[in-house]
Amino acid sequence: MGKTRESVMYLDRAEAERLGELKEERLKVNRTAKVVKGGRRFAFSALTVVGNQDGVVGYGFGKAKEIPAAMQKAFKDGRKHLVRVPRVGTSIPHEVEGEFCSSKVRLIPAAPGTGIIAGGTVRAVLELAGIKDVLTKAYGSTNPINLVKATIVGLAQLRTKEQISECRGVEI
Known about the structure:
By secondary structure, the chain is α+β, with helices and mostly antiparallel strands. It has helices spanning 13-18, 67-78, 120-129, 144-156, 161-168, and strands at residues 23-36, 39-51, 56-64, 82-84, 96-100, 103-109, 116-117, 134-140.
């Protein structure tokens, strides 16, 4: 139980730079206050999802004293946490479950034309990954940061038939 960080293999820096332009979507901006002698000092944290809508997606988290700086940091961090997502047509190859802390996300392949049946946080990740038809269900905590990480863990577990047959050395 707990965090499952070791199962995700992120793209290396050279491969990430070859991707070129990535789209970015802001998911959440959180404001925190520190009380000091003169009043309150505010700081901001931003959660963003980045992707090329063609099989590569990642997330970033940034903190700063101002929102634009936090957004920039989050986007830069997102380029470091990219994963490649295998797809079959407009959906995913098989059903998968991703888990991070107490958030759990189940991703189920759907027929063409179904669309993305998901909440806002999971939907943003799947749209930027280029997946068009999928059913999802989130269990446990619905904290946006943990939901994004659980979705990325689930997407990183996906394998196509070709990858599995190559790995086993047997034709499927």
